Amino acid sequence: QVQLVESGPGRVKPSQTLSLTCSVSGAAITSMRYYWGWIRQPPGEELEWMGCMNYEDTYISPPLRSRTSISWDPSRNQFTLQLRDVISEDTAVYYCAAAEAGSSWTLPSEYDHWGQGTQVTVSS
Length: 124
What we know:
Layout: E1 3-7, E2 11-12, E3 18-25, E4 34-41, E5 48-53, E6 58-60, E7 68-73, E8 78-83, E9 92-100, E10 111-114, E11 118-122
Parallel strand pairs: 2-11
Antiparallel strand pairs: 1-3, 3-8, 4-5, 4-9, 5-6, 7-8, 9-10, 9-11
């Protein structure tokens, strides 16, 4: 069974870089079977797909492309989100998740395996 756990700071100051790590167990992140994604939910809003990666490539939501990077560390079976120049609107619960290859991986509903989520607040 695939399990994901997010880790990172709970609070970030405006203009700083948010870095979150997702630790994966039950599957190798180099597997061809999965897309590994980051999804967030601002307070009172719907889930927002931020981006994902697989063994071949990385895909970032166009509105976030200028500020967002996703990378991986296969030796640790982890993947990481970096969001630069954060603003108050980046306050949200951030989830890492996994979707099966062949799914519509830009849709949060296509992700079958989720971390518990981590609250990130952007505040000075």
